[in-house]
Amino acid sequence: MNGEWMIETRSVSKRFRVAGGGALSNKTFEAVGGISLQIARGETFGIVGESGCGKSTVARLIMGIEKPTTGEIWFNGQRVDDMRPAALRKLRPKFQMVFQDSASSLNPRKTIMDIIAQPMRYHGVARGGEAKRRVSELLDMVGLSQGMAQRYPHELSGGQRQRVCIAKALSLEPELVVLDEPVSALDVSIQAQILNLIRELQARLNLTCIFIGHGLGAVHYVSHRIAVMYLGRIVETGTSDQVFEHPAHPYTKALLDAAPIPDDRQRGRRRSALTGEVSEVAPTGACCLYPRCPIAREECLAFTDGLKPLAGEAGHCAACARAWEER
Ligand SMILES: Nc1ncnc2c1ncn2[C@@H]1O[C@H](COP(=O)(O)OP(=O)(O)O)[C@@H](O)[C@H]1O
Ligand SMILES: [Mg+2]
User: Fold this and answer.
1) pTM score
2) CA-to-CA distance for 263 and 120, rounded, in angstroms?
3) I need a labelling partner for 291 at 20 to 30 A (CA). Which of 28, 77, 135, 301 fits?
4) 7-245 adopts what CATH topology?
């Protein structure tokens, strides 16, 4: 069973110390809780939810940058969250990340050639002419001209810089690429180009990706399967089309309604806006959406079931008693 998924998290949670609690304070809050997800080799797994819901924390836990407070993380049938630092270091090159602002972290004094070649040189996989040949291949892959190699980051546009970051992330032929809001800082017109590039590269190289975003549209566009997060929990998961075309959880519906609707067929769709603020914390034991949910009932005050499959839709799960009834 363990070898089936490339990445698996089992009931992973992460608690952080409460800011301003003082150095001696033990007060903590749960940034993510009970996260169980599985990612297959060669798929793009999307994670979507509002800012602060714990998407980056999940990514950092999978990357091994943070240790889970409870739960386990498995990679290719091997438990990795409790690995010794030396063993973890060997895994590092297999996991690469592209951030929203990774473009701004490009060393301004290095040429694009040196920036993209740096991981290969550091890990000793390619040097000299071999590294140059590989950089030229990578530039081609991400749609940048060969002339870019001798330029400096400030001479490139935001979209071009993000292409450089993607090339750098691919340079070591990683097993997993985590893209954490890679288009959120770009102009809308450029966003589509980068999303297309990600889709193309994923298919061509059979990459395994985690794509994080706060808009369901972009996440649906590049992902095969999606998890929707709210306040540190996964509230719905399924294939990209199941979640996007037939959302089951009231939070997913609200997330869809928050997005512009380009498609005439869907324009008449009923709006299901949430009330209140994200900061409204549900009473203990209640569904996390309880204070804001348009269809909450008294029974939602005691909701401990978590994600459950929806009838007749293989692989589509939601954490909502009303959604289970509806289907
Ligand atoms: N290192 C940290 N220390 C304390 N709190 C953190 C830390 N990292 C994230 N958080 C908090 O955890 C919650 C989830 O954050 P994050 O995973 O960055 O959300 P997202 O990526 O969905 O915007 C937020 O409330 C954030 O402030
Ligand atoms: Mg984030």
Assistant:
1) 0.93
2) 44
3) 28
4) Rossmann fold (3.40.50)
